[in-house]
Amino acid sequence: MSTLLEVSGVSVSFDGFKAINNLSFQIAERELRAVIGPNGAGKTTFMDIITGKTRPDSGRVLYGDKGVSLLKMSENRIAQAGIGRKFQRPTVFEDQSVADNLMMALRKTRGPFAVLVFRPGPEDHARITELAGEIGLSDALDRKAGELSHGQKQWLEIGMLLAQDPKLLLVDEPAAGMTLAEREHTTDILREAAKSRAVVVVEHDMDFVRRLDCKVTVLHEGSVLAEGTLDHVTRNEEVIEVYLGR
Ligand code: ADP
Ligand code: MG
């Protein structure tokens, strides 16, 4: 499968501290990838670089079949180019229903002027129903988002990102604060989402990563320490040393 994102030789320092150090990373179209590593390894900074929030000091970040550089693009343009990001804390509109939250996300895809005149048609309502099914909230469409459990809010936010049909979805520590059942459902959502787009998931929970059942990249001190199946990387001596402990 062809490469969707190519990060090569990227470094970024904060006050002389190299948070990302000559990092190279590739992800293919419709690939599911887990990124693990100790606290401070640079996982969130890596996502900040892809989304344009942090600009690297050196290196390249190329995206799409034309290999456009993301480094010259604003955060907004990167999002419009199909890169969606889910932060740790859900940012749903608590006073609005699940359906309205999804509809707002769908409306955003029509651009700044369409937002003003947007009238949802039958196809939009069908898409909301479909999205609710994908995130397991079909029975909660009329409920206020504020009444949802923490896990359900996270799924709603994933649904709002999927409404924008990103080519690359970045998800930072989705399992934090979730019950086991919620974590299991979250892996199902992400695996399903990765059938039609690339999904990069940063996560600490090893059971969660195992259920994702995908290639794993281990970050340490801002570069790739190991890459491969979860079994492969967890057998790696250096990974055991710096991350898993003895
Ligand atoms: P991770 O997500 O893997 O835990 P981060 O990417 O958040 O790691 O952070 C990597 C390192 O960079 C940490 O030492 C962190 O303190 C530092 N760092 C991250 N962002 C900034 C920033 N904006 N300013 C200064 N230091 C930062
Ligand atoms: Mg982080």
Give structural notes.
With 246 residues, the chain is an alpha/beta fold. The protein has a single domain, classed as Rossmann fold (3-Layer(aba) Sandwich), CATH 3.40.50. Helix content is 38%, strand content 26%. The protein contains 10 helices and 10 strands. α3 packs across α5, α6 (150-162) runs parallel beside α7 and α7 packs parallel to α8. The mean pLDDT is 94. The chain binds adenosine-5'-diphosphate and magnesium ion. Magnesium ion (MG) binds next to α1.
Multimerization state: single chain
Low-confidence stretches: none
CATH fold group: Rossmann fold
Helix fraction, binned, reads 25-40%
Overall 3D shape: globular
**Total helical elements:** 10
Q: Supply Rg.
A: 18 Å
Strand content: 25-35%
CATH level-4 homologous superfamily: P-loop containing nucleotide triphosphate hydrolases
CATH architecture: 3-Layer(aba) Sandwich
Please outline the major beta sheet: 6 strands, mixed
Q: On the 0-100 scale, what is the average pLDDT?
A: 94
Query: What order do the helices and strands follow?
Result: EEEHEEHEHHHHEHEHEEHH
User: Could you say which small molecules are bound to this protein?
Assistant: adenosine-5'-diphosphate, magnesium ion
Keywords:
binds adenosine-5'-diphosphate, 246 residues, binds magnesium ion, alpha/beta, four-stranded antiparallel sheet, Rossmann fold
Present the secondary structure layout.
Blueprint: E1 3-14, E2 17-28, E3 32-36, H1 43-50, E4 58-63, E5 68-69, H2 75-80, E6 83-86, H3 98-108, H4 111-117, H5 122-134, H6 150-162, E7 168-172, H7 180-193, E8 198-202, H8 206-212, E9 215-220, E10 223-228, H9 230-235, H10 237-244
Parallel strand pairs: 3-8, 3-9, 6-7, 7-8
Antiparallel strand pairs: 1-2, 1-4, 4-5, 9-10
Helix pairs in contact: 3-5, 3-6, 6-7, 7-8
